[in-house]
Design goal:
With 160 residues, this protein is an alpha/beta fold. The protein is 21% helix and 25% strand. Strands 3-1-2-4-5-6-7 form a seven-stranded mixed β-sheet. Helix 1 packs parallel to helix 2 (78-90). The longest helix is centred in the middle third of the chain and has 13 residues, at 78-90. The structure holds iron/sulfur cluster.
Length: 160
């Protein structure tokens, strides 16, 4: 399956817990003021790549703790994002996903991706709530959500 990406950081230490392959997906409609990755906004920007190539690179790296789907907006390419997340889970890697949606606003077809996500960093970046002390997120409205527990208990449970 083809996926449009802005780039890949094969070993990131800042896009979630541990050593992670961070996949920056191309395309976002929010245009948050102060967004750190404005080059990822254009829906036709970046480059197309086969998900199989990304999966092969992930499989080859024994140092990884997980992968991170970020962007851009991963939920705009939900099928490709799900394929990457499923593959990572099959390799016993954990999956983090950043999104501009809040958990409550996620599109109806989000479930297939969410089933394969451990931590969802939700909500758009809000410059007036920016806080450099925060871990793995830019503004105070954003949450690190434990997706499995949240789905089980039907209420937001934060990752810790
Ligand atoms: S949702 Fe994320 S990628 Fe999109 S504009 Fe906001 S901060 Fe940037």
């Amino acid at each position: 399956m083809q996926i449009r990406i802005a780039g890949i950081v094969p070993e990131s230490f800042v896009d979630g817990d541990g050593i992670r392959c961070a996949i920056f997906m191309q395309g976002c409609l929010r245009h948050c003021e102060g967004c750190h990755n404005p080059d990822t906004h254009a829906l036709d920007g970046g480059r197309l790549i086969d998900t199989a190539d990304i999966i092969a690179a992930i499989k080859k790296n024994p140092l990884l703790d997980g992968i991170t789907l970020t962007g851009g907006e991963p939920f705009l390419q939900i099928d490709a994002a799900t394929e990457l997340a499923r593959a990572a889970k099959n390799f016993a890697l954990n999956v983090w996903c950043y999104t501009g949606y809040t958990f409550e606003e996620l599109p109806d077809d989000a479930a297939t991706l969410l089933e394969n996500v451990d931590v969802l960093v939700d909500g758009a970046f809000i410059e007036s709530l920016r806080d450099l002390e925060l871990q793995f997120r830019g503004s105070r409205n954003q949450r690190l959500i434990d997706v499995k527990k949240t789905r089980e208990l039907n209420k937001i449970v934060l990752w810790s």
